[in-house]
Amino acid sequence: MTELTELVGTWMRRQRWYSTKNVEPRLRLLASFEAEPADADVRIVTHFFCDDAPRTPRVYQVPVVARPARDGDEAALIGEAGGRFLYDGPTEEAYVASLVRLMTGAQRADGRDAHAQGHTLSRPIAVRSSRRLTGEQSNTSIVGELEDGRRALIKVFRVVQNGENPDVSTLAALTSGGSRRTPSLLGWLTGRWPTPDGGSAAGELALMQDFVPGAEDGWELAVSAAEQGEDFTERAFDLGAGTAELHRLMARVLPTTPATAEDVALALDGMFRRLTVTTTEVPEVEQLRAGIAAVYEEAAAAPLPVLQRIHGDLHLGQVLYAPERGWQFIDFEGEPLRPLAERSLPDATMRDVAGMLRSFDYVAGSLARRETPIDATGWAADARKAYLDGYASVAGSEVDDFHLLLDAFELDKAVYEIAYEARHRPAWIPIPLSAVQRLLATRVR
Ligand SMILES: Nc1ncnc2c1ncn2[C@@H]1O[C@H](COP(=O)(O)OP(=O)(O)O)[C@@H](O)[C@H]1O
Ligand SMILES: O=P(O)(O)O[C@H]1O[C@H](CO)[C@@H](O[C@H]2O[C@H](CO)[C@@H](O)[C@H](O)[C@H]2O)[C@H](O)[C@H]1O
User: Fold this and answer.
1) CA torsion angle for 138, 151, 310, 242 (degrees, to 10)?
2) Which residues form the Aminoglycoside phosphotransferase domain (predicted)?
3) Beta-carbon count within 10 A of 442 CB
4) Residues with C-beta less than 6 Å from any ligand 1 atom
5) pLDDT of 379-424, one tens digit each?
């Protein structure tokens, strides 16, 4: 193993975006692409590593800035190799500036390293300064000050996969459709890299969208309201109405298709697959399997909706509340544990509604697990009802028409969450696990 691969492996294991927990990465360097730096002293290289540690190998994008001296951000130091100090690219202005040049068309992403760019800007624009965001994220986000005074949110995808990333394709369609519910997409970068078996893959490497000023994170807002016993029903109603507006726009600007028997079979297959994965990781779920399966089968026999593009991983952490713009929806990448090819397929809007309903339950679940527990079950029930009322204020009787589907998706999401928590936050497994038990026992909305 080379010095670089060893250093990156040790460092990567500590990163939140490293998706295989509790194991040592087993990395293989697939390719490295060097970008043109503005400063001759630094080298900017984006590496693609295959990690063989998980059952299905994953490819990671690792941009690195190599400096002659140890004068970068200490927290972002990957290590020293070949007489240079290697820093995590997104914390380095040189890397961000080069990425923005590529994404906005100021620099051609030519065939040399097989990158392609796209943007919605009328002219290239440079970044003046940048700051990496911290916090729990699947990817790495950066706030950049643009030369025209605007701010942009730049997202660097860490796990890269072959195919269309809905974070870019959904936002591109919504932006051209004039969405008021999402930030505008400003630019993106698509790249090509070799696959571990000698083939070639292409997919999105980064995107840039406008930064929503003064935005508060939906999860933090909801938790703080719940812990103080503050009424959240008006906000939840608006969030429901906003979700339905978003769905309407998606149906207008992206393909829709009536669900067929094959779609139902595919969806059921996906849900049972998740159930099996979860049961393997958390064996207590096995005893709930028959009850869960009955709900799935009942939904499959019920009337079918028209399928369309949806958010795909909707929860309170995927919405921002901005004073001037109201609720804004972000992160259209879909569930990180789901294969990319599935994530752009037309789906049922009730899947998103179910995701948000689960999130209100998580607010109560997380407060119940505090050192001094807070009972927010009433708060969550009110928020849930207000959200559904808000959705119905725009979408009419859709929730009532497809309530069996909604029940099934709520269970499916909770089953997914059990596996997610087992990998990321085992102490929180009881939140979705008790939700599954409750949903089976009551089947109420
Ligand atoms: N357009 C935006 N304006 C302001 N903040 C944003 C914007 N997009 C994302 N954020 C902030 O960045 C965080 C991570 O973004 P997100 O798209 O959810 O990334 P990830 O794919 O890593 O989950 C969000 O929780 C939010 O706080
Ligand atoms: O935001 P991501 O796309 O990374 O989504 C993943 O992580 C989420 C947690 O950060 C996870 O969401 C679950 O926990 C939330 C509270 O932290 C809660 O609001 C959600 O309802 C719950 O699903 C999400 O499932 C996962 O895909």
Assistant:
1) 120
2) 220-333
3) 8
4) 133, 137-139, 141, 153, 155, 183, 209, 211-212, 215, 217, 320, 330-331, 333
5) 999 999 999 999 999 999 999 999 999 999 999 999 999 999 998 8
Report the atom number in ligand 2 closest to the C-alpha of 359.
Answer: 21
Residues with CB under 6 A from ligand 2: 136, 138, 219, 313, 315-317, 331, 335-336, 358-359, 362, 417, 420
Q: Which atom of ligand 1 is nearest to the CA of 333?
A: 21
Distance in Å, CA 238 to ligand 2 centroid: 21
pTM of the predicted protein model: 0.92
**206 with 103: CB under 8 angstroms?**
yes
CA distance 391 to 237: 7
CA distance 276 to 269: 11
Q: CB neighbours of 184 closer than 8 A, spacing ≥ 6?
A: 120, 171, 175, 209, 210
Q: pLDDT tens-digit profile of 198-255?
A: 899 999 999 999 999 999 999 999 999 999 999 999 999 999 999 999 999 999 999 9
Asked if residues 116 and 105 have their Cβ atoms less than 8 Å apart, the reply is no
DSSP annotation of 34: E
Q: Which listed ligand is nearest to 139 at the C-alpha?
A: 1
- Give the H/E segment covering residue 94: helix 93-103
- Contact, 155 vs 63, CB < 8 A? no
Identify the CA nearest to 192 among candidates 155, 169, 158, 162. Answer: 162
At position 1, the amino acid (one-letter code) is: M
Which of 385, 36, 53, 416 has the alpha carbon at shortest distance from 239?
Answer: 385
